[in-house]
Amino acid sequence: MNPEVVTVGETMVVMSPDPVGNLADADRVAVGVGGAESNVAMGLAALGHPTAWVSRVGADPFGQLVVRRIAAAGVDVGSVDVDPDAPTGLYLKDPRPAGTEVHYYRAGSAASRLAPGALDTPRLAGARLVHLSGITAALSTTCRELVEQTLGRRPLPGALVSFDVNHRVRLWPAATAAPVLRQLADAADLVLVGLDEAQRLWHTDDPQAVRRLLPGPATVVVKDGAVGATALPRTGPETFVPALRVPVVEPVGAGDAFAAGYLSAVLRGLDPRAALRLGHLCAARTLAVAGDTAPPPDRTLCADLIDRSDQDWSALEPPDWSTPDAAR
Fold it and tell me: Boundaries of each Carbohydrate kinase PfkB domain copy (predicted)?
C-alpha cells in the first residue's frame, strides 16, 4: 500500500543524560533517534496515517538503529537509502533549567547528500501530503535543491505540501536563512512557524504580519510556545487556540508533535479549531517526556477534549493521557 503521507529529511542518533540532568555530569546516556521530519512521520503513523519517511543514512550501526527505530514506529522506510561513504549524523542533548542545549555532529552526513529526484519513485505515488522543513534546506546545496524542487515541480501530483520553517541557528545564521526560508515557505500550501522564529528571521512578533509576509500558502499557522497557536487562512477568519498548561520535562520535539497532530486533523477534514487543539494535545504529550517523541493521547480522550467548549478547554488541567478515563 502506498503511503498517505511522505516526509523528507535527516534523522540522527540522539544521546541524552540518563537520568535527565546536565550532560557534563552524566555517567550514562540514553540512545534514541531524532529528526524533525521523522518525528512528524512517527506521530502521523501513531495517529493512523500510512506514512513514509525519505532520507539517507550511513552504512554504520547508527544508520541501522535509526531505520530500525523508525520502522518499529510503523513508518515505511523503504525509500531510505544507505550511503556507503558518509556517516549517520549524531547529536547530544544537554537539558538545563533554561532550556535544552543541543550539540550536533552532522557535517558531511549521509542525509546531507539527499538530492532532487528523491521523491521520484512509484512507491510514493498517490500521497495526499508531503511534509518538509527548513532544516533540510540548510544541510547542503543538493538538499536545498530537493526542497525547492518539491515545492516547485511538485513530484507527487495532487499532494498538499506542508513546510515547517524550523530555523536552526547552528546550521545557518538568521541573516542568511531569512530570505531563503521566506521564499521556501511562501511556495508551500501550509506553513508552520514559531513566533520566536518569525521575530528572529523577519523581525516581527505579530501573527498577522507573518501572514502578510507569506501571502502564498493557503494557511499559515503561527505557534507562540506556551501561549497558543493561530491559524491564518488566506481568506476567512483567523483561529486562535490557547496552549494547555502542562509541566515541561524537555521541550525538544514538541513542535514536531504539534505538526503531526495538526496535519492529522487537516487530513481528516477537521476544522481549524479542532486541528489546533489536536496539535496542542500531541505537543503536550511530548513535553512530558525526555525523548523527542511520545505516543499521542488516547483517541477517545482526544475526541472528547477537542469538542470541549472554549471555557472548558482553557481550564483544563494536565490529565493522565494514557487512558480514556482521563477525559472525565
Answer: 4-298
